[in-house]
């Protein structure tokens, strides 16, 4: 699984140099540890239960959570699967003020086209 991840994901999108996490279980899984051993990735962790030490990520999470809330309020939808997909698209195609780029253009090296849903 690790070699497949490196061949398919890392070969296309590159890998990070530093993994900065909040000591969550998702960042200590076996696949990630194997990838870290195979690639020169330095692991850093914040102090437990002290989100202030991870301010950039906390701010990003707060921004990301505004998308599903806005979709749920706007469309009075409780269909989380639809809201999550719409939120992903909205986030990935939104220009970030600090970079001037969309996440999809940075990751995919080209700009994505967003189609308006039919009325």
TrEMBL record:
InterPro entries noted in UniProt: Integrase_cat-core, Retrovirus_Pol_polyprotein, RNaseH-like_sf, RNaseH_sf
Species assigned in the record: Paragonimus westermani
GO MF annotation: an example: nucleic acid binding
Leader sequence segment: none
Residue stretches making up the Integrase catalytic domain: 1-111
PANTHER family linked: INTEGRASE CATALYTIC DOMAIN-CONTAINING PROTEIN, PROTEIN CBG26694
Single GO biological process annotation from the record: DNA integration
Record Gene3D superfamilies: Ribonuclease H-like superfamily/Ribonuclease H
Name used for this protein in its record: Integrase catalytic domain-containing protein
């Amino acid at each position: 699984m690790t070699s497949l991840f490196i061949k398919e994901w890392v070969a296309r999108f590159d890998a990070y140099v530093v993994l900065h996490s909040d000591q969550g279980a998702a960042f200590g899984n076996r696949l990630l540890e194997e990838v870290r051993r195979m690639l020169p990735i330095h692991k850093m962790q914040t102090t437990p239960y002290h989100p202030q030490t991870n301010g950039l990520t906390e701010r990003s999470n707060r921004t990301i959570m505004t998308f599903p809330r806005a979709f749920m309020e706007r469309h009075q939808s409780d269909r989380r699967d639809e809201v999550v997909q719409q939120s992903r698209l909205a986030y990935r195609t939104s220009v970030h003020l600090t970079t001037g780029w969309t996440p999809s253009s940075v990751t995919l090296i080209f700009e994505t086209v967003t189609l308006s849903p039919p009325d």
